[in-house]
Structure formats: structure tokens, C-alpha cells
Amino acid sequence: MFDIGSNSVRFVAYEGPPRAPIPIYNEKWPISLGDIVRHHGAIDDKSMAHLLAGIDRFISLASYMQVGTIKAVATAAIREAENGGDFIGAAADRGLMVDLLSGEEEAYVAAMGVLTCYPDAEGIVADLGGGSLEIARVSGGQVTGAMSLPFGTAKLTILSKSEWQDVAERLKSELGGRGPGGTLYMVGGTWRAVAHLHQYANAHPLRVLSRYRIAPKDIPGLLEDVSNSDLAASSPTVPTQRIPLMPAATRMLGLLNDIIRPKRNMSCPLGIREGLLLEELDSEARDGDPLLESARFAGQRLSRGRFDGDRLFDWMQPLFEALDEKDDARLRHAACLLADSAWHIHPDYRSSHALQIGLEGNFLGAGGRERAMIARALWSAYGDSNNNRNILSQLAKRKPLRRADKWGLAIRLGMRIDGGTGMALDNCQLRIDGDRLLLETPKGAEALRGEAIGHRLQKLARGIGKQAVFADRG
User: Fold this and answer.
1) Domain 2-100 grouped into CATH 3.40.50.200
2) Is 181 left (phi over 0), alpha (psi -120 to 50) or beta?
3) How far apart are CA 154 and CA 174, in angstroms?
4) Pairing relation of β-strands 142-149 and 123-128?
5) Does the pLDDT of residue 388 top 80, yes or no?
6) What is d(CA 134, CA 147) in angstroms, rounded to the nearest whole number?
7) Which of 39, 190, 255, 359 lies 20 to 30 angstroms, CA to CA, from 316?
8) CA separation for the pair 325, 464 (Å, rounded)
9) Fold agreement between 2-100 and 103-275
10) In this structure, are residues 261 and 179 in contact, taking their beta carbons and an 8 Å threshold?
């Protein structure tokens, strides 16, 4: 994917499941096209040569990497440049066909990018780029009301006080009927930098931006933080080139909050690139769960060949489904898909490594709470050896972590029964009978009742307040 934007040209190569594309290479070619076009009306010769040099490099990279399908899009800066067509022609001469998105198309695919990460998204998507601000509504998996406004960061940073008032009036006119309530989804590199600074200023334990929220009441303090260049510069996750743009971006966020009145602001790490990929899928593929698709891909890549996380989940499900709270089954399923991911690590460090996989894995749509529960389940599945798990309590409350702990104990038992292959689980049933936890196996299948199995069954039974019992399956 080639993304020719107002602040840079970016090349991103993806692999993995179509519903949850995983970036395997990401490189940016810096060029401030938005500023260039704003000052000159066109791309000057020197800048055009630099722009095409970046295109040449990325075409070569795509060839070296044997990328199967290449898609290229250009947005506001090329739309506004008097010689934008010259660039598109020069790219075509190199074999790269560039699709010039209209403002409405850009808003639509940015909203599709939000749906890639959050299929349950309900609210307003705002994509703040260097040259424009794109707005759309998402609800029930659909995108409506896409529009583009000429308020990109390159323009906002030079506005006077009276010009900001004009921007506010234009926003009220265009957006006044789009609130209140719901979520404002923040898309774009500068808003990601603002969210990272908010994490840093509030000592948030994860750098992951998926489902990261900024309360509307936090915006005045956030504006002070982004205006503190020393604070921004000290953050390990705020790109230096974004720092000058952050005050204007935060001020725009404040205006949108005043007009739309969302319940929350949520950062989205995805945008138009992923939205374009989702748009190409059929309806059945779109319905896939991005968390489970990405967890399944990661689990298959890291696990042993015969491991079957879906079968493990199905085997455990009857034990927990009656007690599940919202989203529990989905998170438990993800933990099962990842359950064999630390087998290749030294035994003394497997639980620590599994915990890190749960927290830091490249999964779509999983925020801090969800990651903490997955991590806690994996930590328990590998024997809860001594390591620092205090981070989990900073991300999730005690009760959901205790539920996840029980999932891990069941995963640990299921993995021991047949070496993680799932081949014997169909013949074993795990169920509760009064105050007993029964592991029922076929008559004569003593091989499924070894000492290690009994030990893990007892530990799971203690975890759920039951007595462990082996029984014949009728």
C-alpha cells in the first residue's frame, strides 16, 4: 500500500488474515506536500523530484518483497496541487497507478478503517490529516454522512484567533446536528501523537492505542501538556516532527467535543489504508472478528504444528458460558488461540513470555482491559511462575482478572491431556455436578488420567471452588 499524504509518503506491506491485516513493513518518506502546495499552489520541481525518488524506492521495495497486490492512493495535497495530475502521470510511467481520493471518499475509507479495528463502533469518525479533516458517522457496521473540511494541521497551525473563530463557526454549521453522545474516533498521525502524550502524562502502563480513551474533561489539561514542548520531547512515543502540530490538533479536538458532545474520545491506530483493504472484502469476510482473526494468525505462527486453539476453546466453553460477563467468551477464545505461543521459550520464563504476548501482541480491537485478561489467562496457563504481573491490575479490575485466571487453569489442563493437539478432547468432558468438577473420560482410557492430569484438575477445581473427580463417560 502506497499512501501519498500531506505530510509524507508511506509504504506499508501487510500479511495475515484479510480481516485483520498485519503490517510487516512500514516506511515513511518525509515530504511536507501540504505546506508546499499551500505556499506555491503546486509541487515545485525540486519537491517533485524528491517525491518521485520516494516512489521509486518504494516500488523497488515492493518488488524485493514480492508484494502480490499494490494499491496506491493520494489525498488532500495532491487534490489541491495544480500539477497533481503531473505527479499521477509520472507515477503511472513507473508502473504505479495512483487513485486520487475525493474528500468524501477519504472520509469514507477512514471510517472503514475504524470499523476494521472496532466492528462495534458507534459515533463519529474524525480523520485529521495535514491538509484536511474528514468526518463520517459509523453505526451498525455502516458508514454514512462522509464529508471533507479544509482544516488539516498544516493550515490550523498558522491560524489567528479570529480565524479559529471562523473555523468554529464552520464546524458548528456542518456538524451541529451530529451529536450528542456516542464516541468520537480519533484517526490520523497527529492525534495518535496526542494520545501517546496523554498516556505518558498519565503514566499509562501500555503504549498500545487500541481502544485508548481520552475523556472530554481531560482536554483542557491535555492542551497544556501538548503546549509543553519539553514534556512532549521527553515522551518515547511522540515523533519529534509531530510536536509542533499537536497544540492545533488538540484545539481542534476541543472544538469537536464542544460541538458534537461525545461521551468519550477513542484513539484508533488504523485509518484509510486498512479501510481500503476492508472495503475490498465480501460481506462474509467483513463479519469476521478482527481480534480472533489476528490472535488465530499469531497463534498458528508461534505454536506447534498440531495445536488447535479453536478445539480447546470449544472443550472449555461449557464450564464457563453460564458465568460469562460481556465479552468474556471472545477474550477466552483469543487466549485459547494463543495458548501454545510460548512453548519454545525456556520453561522458567514461559509464563512471563506468555504474559507479554497477551499484553503486547499485535491484535486488532483489544484495549488495555482486554489485553490484561488475555495475558492473565496465558500467565496462569503456563504455571504462574514468579514474574511481575502488577501491570495487569493497572489495566483491569480484580474480578475480571480472577475470571481470566480460571480460564488459564482450564487451558493448562486441556493442553496437558493430549499434548496440546486437541485430538483427545472430543473424548473428554469437563463439567460441574453440584460441588464436584468432573473430568469424564471413556471407560478404559486410563491414559487420559495421569498424575499430571490429576494435579491440574485439582488446581482448576480449587480455583472454581469445587472438588476434582475423575469419572467414566457414559
Assistant:
1) no
2) left
3) 21
4) unpaired
5) no
6) 6
7) 359
8) 16
9) yes
10) yes
Enclosing H/E stretch for 138: strand 133-139
| Each residue's pLDDT tens digit, 63-117 | 999 998 999 999 999 999 999 999 999 999 999 999 999 999 999 999 999 999 9
What residue segments make up the domains of the chain, in order of their start? 2-100, 103-275, 290-473
Give the whole-angstrom CA distance, residue 327 versus residue 464: 20
The span from the CA of 415 to the CA of 409, in Å, is 10
* Three-state DSSP string of 343-412: CCCCHHHHHHHHHHHHHHCCCCCCCHHHHHHHHHHHHHHCCCCCCCCHHHHHHCCHHHHHHHHHHHHHHH
Q: How far apart are CA 51 and CA 45, in angstroms?
A: 10
Give whole-number Cα distances, 192 to 195, 199, 333, 437, in Å: 5, 11, 29, 47
Burial 236-259 (b: 16+ CB within 10 A, else e): eebeeebbebbbbbbbbbbbbbeb
* Burial status of residue 325 (CB atoms within 10 A of its CB: 0-12, 13-18, 19 or more): exposed
For residue 2, count CB atoms less than 10 angstroms from its CB and return exposed for 0-12, middle for 13-18, buried for 19 or more: buried
Q: What is the mean pLDDT of the chain?
A: 92
CA 338 to chain centroid? 17
DSSP string, 285-347: HHTS-HHHHHHHHHHHHHS-TT--HHHHHHHHHHHHGGG--TTHHHHHHHHHHTTTTTTTS-G
Domain 290-473 sits in CATH 1.10.3210.10: yes
H or E, element range at 429: strand 429-433
**CB contact set of 80 (below 8 Å; sequence gap of 6+):** 37, 131
Cell representation of residue 301: 505462527
d(CA 363, CA 334): 10
Q: What is the mean pLDDT of residues 54-61?
A: 97
What b/e string do you get for 45-57 counting C-beta neighbours within 10 Å, with b at 16 or more? eebbebbbebbee
Question: Helix, strand, or coil here: 73?
Answer: strand
Bridge partners, 100 (sequence order): 74
pLDDT at position 424 over 90: no
Task: Give the tens place of pLDDT for each residue, 220-230.
Answer: 999 999 988 88
Determine how β-strand 264-267 pairs with β-strand 142-149: unpaired
Residue 204 contacts by C-beta under 8 Å, 6 or more apart in sequence? 198, 212, 368
Which run of H or of E encompasses 461?
Answer: helix 451-463
Percent of the chain with pLDDT over 70: 99
pLDDT in tens, 290-310: 999 999 999 999 998 788 999
What is the longest distance spanned by two Cα atoms in the chain? 85
Q: Which fold has domain 103-275?
A: Nucleotidyltransferase; domain 5 (3.30.420)
The pLDDT, as a whole number, for residue 387 is 60
